[in-house]
Request: fold
Amino acid sequence: MSRNEKRILILAGVFALTFGIVPNVSAMHIMEGYLPGGFCIAWGVLCIPFLAAGFLSIKKTLNEHRNLITLLAMSGAFVFVISSLKIPSVTGSCSHMTGTGLGAILFGPSAVSILGLIVLLFQAILLAHGGLTTIGANTFSMAIAGPFVSYGIYILCKKLNVNKKAAVFLAAALGDLFTYCVTAGQMALAHHADTTVMGALGKFLAVFAPTQVPLAIIEGIITAVIVMGLESYAKPELRALGFLKEAK
Amino acid sequence: MITIDKLCYHSRLRYENAGEKFAFAVITLLICVMSRSAAVAGIVLAVTGVLTVWKGGIPFFRYLRFLTVPLTFLFLSTLAIMFNISHTPLDLFAVSLGSWYLTASTHSFFYALQLILTALSAVSCLYFLAFTTPMPDILEVLRKLHCPRLLIELMLLIYRFIFVLLDIASAISVSQDCRLGNRDYKTALKSFGMLGSVLMIRAVSRSNRLYDAMEARGYDGTIRVLSEDRPPKKKVIAAIALFEIFLFIFALWRRFFS
Reply:
């Protein structure tokens, strides 16, 4: 083997290693054990008011319409399943969507906060995405911050009479991007060894951008297709979902 | 369908008392995260790994493969922690890019190394729980810890529905594959979106029928399931307590005296 051939082989090996170990680009769950104890507790505490509000709203809805409990549970399972399916991605690695933007548009942000918490717990235990100690931080970024932004944008677009397809796309994609920014912020606050918090934030944003920005766009497109499909085939079902949204 | 769920029903530790396993996993996890020392992380990784693979009988290579699931996240975020781009070179190494340096310091190198170890050992604690305790048992433990009833009930229903919906989803995606639904990127996107909307429609109609069925069988707001009672063994509790106390003292010692 000549030196050149060897060099090519080594390069190919390095290439395979760096790209081969990227099997799973999920939405940004902070992994188990990545945040120091204090931050885990702080993010958890920050979530409590939102979760309490969500819990009370669900409870009130269920007291009035007992039969909605199966619908609510189905919605939770739907978010889990949608986020566990592989979506077609450009790079060939398998990626997953968050599904929380879709959830916020369909079920309203208050129901999604509680459903999101349960889904995150299941994702941690059944799929090993995220973790138990970081569940507070993950809930804040994926089940509270993202859905609220999605829902806000969706309502705003509705008021401004934007085309529905575009509204759904914007809501889902921007919600996803916001989740990614919040997660990067959470990590920068916890880990800034050599630089300032802002410097660390920039680094985290830059490192995750290549996977997260395309993912947000894909998620937006898919969410728009899903909502359009529902609009054309499932008017009565959507009315049933409206019940979940009314009680806030 | 969900590999972890399938494996944990086959685990040899499945019939141990769920409270014991839950307590062991969670307390070890907390000590591991709070102490943030590489030595503690090493011990935890070894102990939980041995328990899951050797005692629990989870295939070794499967276990290793699962440990690599969070690797992408770990890899990327460690890059972000270790490397800096600045005007001044730091002490570990520096690659010059024009007037800037791609550089890292020894401090941040060891910080990142310790973080990787801690994260991996925390994940191994989570895996111990996930690979030995089926979800209904975990819910039973949560019920005993006085988690709100409504939440437990929602979780029970969601756990059941996940499998119903996964079944529908896999059938739909097989038939989409048969009909060239993933021919190119554009059709794949469209197929996935259609799968999502049909899944939602099916879920809603299914949930209505399910509620009717539950009502017909006398549903009054709570689902009562029989839980098999496996009394905790004194020997196991003593062993867990001993291990946790040892780990705690060791973590304190590493933190303050070395």
About this structure: Strands of chain B lie at 84-86, 93-97, 100-104.
